[in-house]
Protein backbone atom coordinates (compact mmCIF):
# COMPACT_ATOMS: atom_id res chain seq x y z
CA UNK A 1 0.00 0.00 0.00
CA UNK A 2 1.40 3.40 -0.90
CA UNK A 3 0.61 6.82 0.45
CA UNK A 4 -1.64 7.68 -2.49
CA UNK A 5 -4.07 4.84 -1.78
CA UNK A 6 -4.05 5.39 1.97
CA UNK A 7 -5.79 8.71 2.02
CA UNK A 8 -9.02 7.56 0.31
CA UNK A 9 -9.03 4.51 2.56
CA UNK A 10 -8.61 6.69 5.63
CA UNK A 11 -11.52 8.84 4.47
CA UNK A 12 -13.66 5.76 3.95
CA UNK A 13 -12.92 4.39 7.39
CA UNK A 14 -13.70 7.78 8.91
CA UNK A 15 -17.02 7.95 7.07
CA UNK A 16 -17.98 4.46 8.20
CA UNK A 17 -17.13 5.34 11.81
CA UNK A 18 -19.12 8.54 11.56
CA UNK A 19 -22.06 6.61 10.13
CA UNK A 20 -21.90 4.13 12.98
CA UNK A 21 -21.79 6.94 15.51
CA UNK A 22 -24.88 8.51 13.93
CA UNK A 23 -26.70 5.17 13.90
CA UNK A 24 -25.74 4.63 17.54
CA UNK A 25 -27.81 7.70 18.45
CA UNK A 26 -30.95 5.69 17.71
CA UNK A 27 -30.04 3.16 20.39
CA UNK A 28 -30.73 4.60 23.81
CA UNK A 29 -30.09 2.99 27.20
CA UNK A 30 -33.05 2.07 29.38
CA UNK A 31 -33.72 5.07 31.63
CA UNK A 32 -37.11 3.89 32.88
CA UNK A 33 -37.65 4.04 36.64
CA UNK A 34 -40.58 3.04 38.83
CA UNK A 35 -42.79 5.82 40.24
CA UNK A 36 -41.10 7.47 43.23
CA UNK A 37 -42.92 6.75 46.48
CA UNK A 38 -42.22 9.55 49.03
CA UNK A 39 -42.95 7.07 51.82
CA UNK A 40 -39.84 5.15 50.73
CA UNK A 41 -37.61 8.17 50.07
CA UNK A 42 -34.66 8.65 52.44
CA UNK A 43 -35.01 12.44 52.69
CA UNK A 44 -38.74 12.15 53.47
CA UNK A 45 -38.37 9.27 55.91
CA UNK A 46 -35.55 10.99 57.83
CA UNK A 47 -37.42 14.31 57.66
CA UNK A 48 -34.25 16.01 56.43
CA UNK A 49 -34.13 19.82 56.75
CA UNK A 50 -34.24 21.84 53.48
CA UNK A 51 -30.53 22.71 53.40
CA UNK A 52 -29.58 19.04 53.77
CA UNK A 53 -32.13 18.04 51.12
CA UNK A 54 -30.63 20.46 48.66
CA UNK A 55 -27.09 19.20 49.34
CA UNK A 56 -27.97 15.51 49.08
CA UNK A 57 -30.08 15.94 45.94
CA UNK A 58 -27.34 18.04 44.34
CA UNK A 59 -24.50 15.61 45.13
CA UNK A 60 -25.93 12.08 45.38
CA UNK A 61 -29.44 11.79 43.94
CA UNK A 62 -28.45 11.64 40.27
CA UNK A 63 -26.86 8.23 40.85
CA UNK A 64 -28.31 7.01 44.15
CA UNK A 65 -32.04 7.52 43.59
CA UNK A 66 -34.70 7.26 40.90
CA UNK A 67 -34.89 11.08 40.76
CA UNK A 68 -32.05 11.38 38.26
CA UNK A 69 -31.63 14.61 36.33
CA UNK A 70 -29.90 13.85 33.07
CA UNK A 71 -27.51 16.34 31.48
CA UNK A 72 -27.80 16.81 27.68
CA UNK A 73 -24.76 14.66 26.92
CA UNK A 74 -26.45 11.74 28.68
CA UNK A 75 -28.55 11.46 25.50
CA UNK A 76 -25.58 11.30 23.15
CA UNK A 77 -24.00 7.90 22.43
CA UNK A 78 -21.57 6.67 23.57
CA UNK A 79 -21.75 8.92 26.68
CA UNK A 80 -25.38 7.87 27.17
CA UNK A 81 -24.31 4.32 27.94
CA UNK A 82 -21.44 5.32 30.20
CA UNK A 83 -23.65 7.68 32.22
CA UNK A 84 -26.45 5.11 32.56
CA UNK A 85 -23.92 2.51 33.65
CA UNK A 86 -22.73 4.72 36.53
CA UNK A 87 -26.32 5.39 37.54
CA UNK A 88 -27.32 1.72 37.48
CA UNK A 89 -24.27 0.77 39.50
CA UNK A 90 -24.79 3.60 41.97
CA UNK A 91 -28.43 2.60 42.53
CA UNK A 92 -27.42 -0.98 43.05
CA UNK A 93 -25.07 -0.02 45.89
CA UNK A 94 -27.34 2.55 47.50
CA UNK A 95 -30.78 3.77 46.43
CA UNK A 96 -32.23 6.63 48.47
CA UNK A 97 -35.59 6.16 46.70
CA UNK A 98 -35.88 2.71 48.28
CA UNK A 99 -34.96 3.63 51.82
CA UNK A 100 -37.05 0.81 53.30
CA UNK A 101 -34.55 -1.53 51.61
CA UNK A 102 -31.29 0.38 52.12
CA UNK A 103 -31.69 1.93 55.60
CA UNK A 104 -29.28 0.26 57.98
CA UNK A 105 -27.21 -1.24 55.16
CA UNK A 106 -23.44 -1.14 55.27
CA UNK A 107 -23.42 1.20 52.24
CA UNK A 108 -25.80 3.63 53.92
CA UNK A 109 -23.53 3.72 56.95
CA UNK A 110 -20.59 4.56 54.72
CA UNK A 111 -22.18 7.61 53.09
CA UNK A 112 -20.52 10.10 55.46
CA UNK A 113 -17.13 8.45 55.15
CA UNK A 114 -17.28 8.30 51.34
CA UNK A 115 -18.11 12.01 51.18
CA UNK A 116 -15.51 12.94 53.79
CA UNK A 117 -12.76 11.11 51.96
CA UNK A 118 -13.71 12.56 48.59
CA UNK A 119 -14.62 9.14 47.14
CA UNK A 120 -18.20 10.29 46.56
CA UNK A 121 -19.47 11.99 44.53
CA UNK A 122 -16.95 10.63 41.99
CA UNK A 123 -14.36 13.06 40.63
CA UNK A 124 -15.67 12.92 37.06
CA UNK A 125 -19.12 13.89 38.37
CA UNK A 126 -17.74 16.84 40.38
CA UNK A 127 -15.90 17.95 37.25
CA UNK A 128 -19.11 18.04 35.20
CA UNK A 129 -21.50 19.34 37.90
CA UNK A 130 -20.80 22.60 39.73
CA UNK A 131 -23.54 21.86 42.27
CA UNK A 132 -21.61 18.76 43.38
CA UNK A 133 -18.50 20.76 44.28
CA UNK A 134 -19.32 21.53 47.90
CA UNK A 135 -17.67 24.20 50.02
CA UNK A 136 -15.79 22.84 53.05
CA UNK A 137 -18.57 24.10 55.31
CA UNK A 138 -21.35 22.40 53.33
CA UNK A 139 -19.34 19.23 53.01
CA UNK A 140 -18.72 19.05 56.77
CA UNK A 141 -22.37 19.81 57.45
CA UNK A 142 -23.46 16.96 55.18
CA UNK A 143 -20.89 14.49 56.54
CA UNK A 144 -22.08 15.20 60.09
CA UNK A 145 -25.71 14.79 59.04
CA UNK A 146 -25.01 11.51 57.20
CA UNK A 147 -23.12 10.10 60.16
CA UNK A 148 -25.86 11.08 62.60
CA UNK A 149 -28.80 9.94 60.47
CA UNK A 150 -27.62 7.12 58.21
CA UNK A 151 -25.70 5.15 60.80
CA UNK A 152 -22.16 6.30 60.09
CA UNK A 153 -19.17 6.76 62.35
CA UNK A 154 -21.06 9.04 64.68
CA UNK A 155 -23.57 6.27 65.34
CA UNK A 156 -27.18 7.37 65.41
CA UNK A 157 -30.47 6.12 64.05
CA UNK A 158 -30.39 3.66 61.20
CA UNK A 159 -27.02 2.15 62.08
CA UNK A 160 -26.67 -1.60 62.10
CA UNK A 161 -23.49 -1.95 64.08
CA UNK A 162 -21.16 -2.54 61.14
CA UNK A 163 -18.83 0.32 62.11
CA UNK A 164 -16.15 -2.17 63.10
CA UNK A 165 -15.86 -3.35 59.51
CA UNK A 166 -14.71 -0.05 58.14
CA UNK A 167 -11.09 -1.11 57.92
CA UNK A 168 -11.79 -3.49 55.04
CA UNK A 169 -10.21 -2.77 51.67
CA UNK A 170 -12.31 -1.27 48.88
C1 LIG B 1 -21.93 9.88 39.19
C2 LIG B 1 -22.70 8.97 39.99
C3 LIG B 1 -22.56 8.99 41.48
C4 LIG B 1 -22.79 10.04 42.35
C5 LIG B 1 -23.18 11.45 42.01
C6 LIG B 1 -22.59 9.52 43.68
N1 LIG B 1 -22.26 8.20 43.62
FE1 LIG B 1 -21.95 6.95 45.17
N2 LIG B 1 -21.55 5.41 43.89
C7 LIG B 1 -21.56 5.49 42.53
C8 LIG B 1 -21.12 4.24 41.96
C9 LIG B 1 -20.99 3.93 40.48
C10 LIG B 1 -20.85 3.39 43.05
C11 LIG B 1 -20.36 1.96 43.02
C12 LIG B 1 -18.93 1.84 42.63
C13 LIG B 1 -18.00 2.52 43.60
O1 LIG B 1 -18.02 2.19 44.80
O2 LIG B 1 -17.23 3.37 43.15
C14 LIG B 1 -21.13 4.16 44.24
C15 LIG B 1 -20.99 3.66 45.52
C16 LIG B 1 -21.33 4.36 46.68
C17 LIG B 1 -21.29 3.81 48.01
C18 LIG B 1 -20.90 2.39 48.36
C19 LIG B 1 -19.41 2.35 48.49
C20 LIG B 1 -18.89 0.96 48.58
O3 LIG B 1 -17.66 0.85 48.64
O4 LIG B 1 -19.66 0.01 48.55
C21 LIG B 1 -21.66 4.79 48.87
C22 LIG B 1 -21.77 4.71 50.38
C23 LIG B 1 -21.93 5.97 48.06
N3 LIG B 1 -21.72 5.68 46.74
C24 LIG B 1 -22.34 7.18 48.57
C25 LIG B 1 -22.52 8.33 47.82
C26 LIG B 1 -22.88 9.58 48.39
C27 LIG B 1 -23.10 9.84 49.88
C28 LIG B 1 -22.99 10.47 47.36
C29 LIG B 1 -23.28 11.94 47.47
C30 LIG B 1 -22.46 12.69 48.37
C31 LIG B 1 -22.70 9.74 46.13
N4 LIG B 1 -22.41 8.44 46.46
C32 LIG B 1 -22.71 10.27 44.85
C33 LIG B 1 -21.94 6.59 41.78
C34 LIG B 1 -22.23 7.84 42.30
Could you tell me the radius of gyration in angstroms?
A: 21 Å
Give the DSSP E fraction (strand runs of 2 or more residues).
under 5%
Query: What is the overall number of helices?
Result: 10
- Averaging pLDDT over every residue, what do you get? 90
User: Globular, elongated, flat, extended or rod-shaped: what is the shape?
Assistant: elongated
Distance, first to last CA: 50 Å
> Which structural class best describes the helix and strand composition?
mainly alpha
Could you characterize what this model shows?
- The protein has ten helices and no strands.
- It is an all-alpha fold and 170 residues long.
- The protein has one domain (32-165).
- It is elongated and about 70 Å long.
- It starts with a helix and ends in a 21-residue tail after the last helix.
- Mean pLDDT is 90; it is low at 155-170.
- Bound molecules: heme C.
- Heme C is lined by residues 59-60, 62-64, 86, 89-90, 93-94, 107, 110-111, 114-115, 120-122, 125, 170.
Brief overview, please?
This protein has 170 residues and is mainly alpha-helical.
Itemize the secondary structure elements and their pairings.
Elements: H1 3-24, H2 42-45, H3 50-59, H4 61-64, H5 79-93, H6 99-102, H7 106-109, H8 111-116, H9 123-128, H10 136-149
Bound molecules: heme C.
Amino acid sequence: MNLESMRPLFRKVLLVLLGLLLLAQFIQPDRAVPAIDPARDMLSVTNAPPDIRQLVVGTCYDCHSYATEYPWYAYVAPMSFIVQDHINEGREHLNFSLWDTYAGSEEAGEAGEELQEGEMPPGYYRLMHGHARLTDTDKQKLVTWFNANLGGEGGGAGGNGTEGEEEEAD
